[in-house]
Amino acid sequence: ETTEASAELAGSGLVAEKAKRLQKLDDMRAEGTNPYPYRFDRTITLHELRERFGDLEPGTETEHHVAVAG
Fold first, then answer.
1. Do 18 and 43 belong to one domain?
2. Which range marks the domain in which residue 30 is found?
3. Distances (CA, A) of 57 to 53, 54, 62, 65
């Protein structure tokens, strides 16, 4: 990166904005908050899955789409 490019970025406020955002991430982590939380919507429990589809052979495909977690 050239000094000209660095000066251009600094003049545009991008360097300050990046520093601000990185500090916000550090603050969230220090508070014990995950800055990139995940979400997973379960549609069926493992118990229900085994009850409904436990008799299928491994590799069998059906028209049902489910999401389990754990």
1. no
2. 1-38
3. 9, 8, 11, 17
